[in-house]
Write the structure tokens for this entry.
Amino acid sequence: MKLFITILQEEDYPTLAERLTKDGIYHTRIAGEGGLLGGRKVVLLSAVEDEQQDKMLEIIKTSCSEREEIILAEAPSGFMGMSVPIPFKVHSGGAVVMVMPLDKIVKI
């Protein structure tokens, strides 16, 4: 059995949660923030049987797509205290998945 720790953007969560639940893979959601763009993140904890690992990774891959966003970066204008917003393309989305061995689960 493995513990999957998956970090993804909040906007990808509904699709991922629906697909996991449909396939009988249950999870616990933890809210978070951070990363380059700030924004809301979701951390999922999932206990997955060894034979379901590939299925879990495939569901995550198809549910958490990478996309391009435009942010406004501040650049100095040359005048004291003034800056000019410049549009800047960044890649966001996708997921970070950490897989760890899990010896047992105890419900108390």
